[in-house]
Amino acid sequence: MTIKLIEADTLAERLKHYPLAVLKATMALPGGGTSEHTHTEHLPDSQTIDLDNEGSRHKQGKVHQRLDTDDLARLVGKLGLTPQSEVVVYDGFGMFCAPRIWWMLKAIGHDKVRVLNGGLPAWQRAGGLTNQQSKSAPFHQLYQPQPQKGWFVDSAEVLAALNTETQIVDARSPARFDGNEPEPRAGVRSGHIPGSLNVYYQELLTDNRLRSAAELNAIFDKKNVNLQQPIICSCGSGITACIVGMAALICGAPKVTVYDGSWTEWGSDPALPVELSQ
Predict the structure, then answer these.
(1) Cβ-based burial of 169 (10 A; exposed 0-12, middle 13-18, buried ≥19)
(2) What does the pLDDT read at residue 186?
(3) Which PANTHER family does UniProt cross-reference here (predicted)?
(4) I need a labelling partner for 234 at 20 to 30 A (CA). Which of 86, 97, 258, 266 fits?
């Protein structure tokens, strides 16, 4: 199984001997919460991808849509990456938006990419040095993507998956999933995709780090998620769905994808069905 995470002490040691490309994923929490930009510290020589800006498409009122393959290739090329680059992604929260960058890179065929488990807080606890500014790319590269199917699906594919063996797993909080708490984005209905299962992404974390594979397996089992059947992960806007998706892959799930538009798209479309918990 491809290694998807790297621990802070391992990263510190590798940085002494190998030329790694370190990327910081940034964004603001939905609903006007804490911004990633308040975390002003950066790992040494790291560069930034802002998912609220250049790291996403924001067309037709949608948020955090994945970049087209060519647009993402141009973006990472400007950061000096090539398909052979060994990449580590982290964020300032610990484990929040970095998996989204990981997922996007996997979708364009980037093989050597891992997420720093625990992010900036874990790095600091391990005694790692930080800088006040991110670095600029020394030179641009022509990045040649190799698009891979199966990493993302759209609303039509989710609709077609209803009432099949495919499981829709929603990473939002139980209150939002049940429809008992309003959505943080205006114009989005409350509730969830019919028949979906709720695995709140925070339950997969401890101290803002992904739990062990054994613990993750136990949580999925408790939530009645069959890891051997196809899984579509959803959330508010496609960010924390990637945490659930990564956790499922770590547990050995063979077929996991992310609904790119997630609940912001689904809940905004009156033509799509919505379910409320009893």
Answers:
(1) buried
(2) 86
(3) SULFURTRANSFERASE, THIOSULFATE SULFERTANSFERASE
(4) 86
22 φ, ψ (degrees, to nearest 5): -105, 125
Neighbours of 29 (CB within 10 A): 15
- Rounded to the nearest 5°, which phi and psi values hold at 6? -135, 140
Task: Give, for 249, the enclosing helix (H) or strand (E).
Answer: helix 241-250
Give the closest residue to 277 by CA, choosing from 204, 198, 202, 183.
198
pLDDT tens digit string along 152-192? 999 999 999 999 999 999 999 999 999 999 999 888 999 99
| The two three-digit tokens of residue 173, written as one number | 């909080």
State the CB neighbour count (10 A cutoff) for residue 129. Answer: 11
Around Cβ 86, how many Cβ atoms within 10 Å? Answer: 16
Residue 137 pLDDT more than 70?
no
Task: Say if residue 127 is exposed, middle or buried (CB neighbours under 10 Å; 0-12, 13-18, 19+).
Answer: exposed
pLDDT of residue 1: 46
Give the three-state DSSP class for 205.
strand
What is the full DSSP assignment across 156-187?
HHHHHHTTSSPEEEE-S-HHHHHT-S--SSTT
What topology is assigned to 5-125 in CATH?
Answer: Oxidized Rhodanese; domain 1 (3.40.250)
User: In the chain, which residues fall in CATH 3.40.250.10?
Assistant: 5-125, 152-266
Q: How does pLDDT run across 78-135, given as a tens digit for each residue? A: 999 999 999 999 999 999 999 999 999 999 999 999 999 999 999 999 999 998 777 6
pTM of the shown model: 0.94
Question: Which residues lie below 8 Å from residue 114, measured CB to CB, with a gap of 6+?
Answer: 3, 4, 5, 6, 87, 88, 89, 102
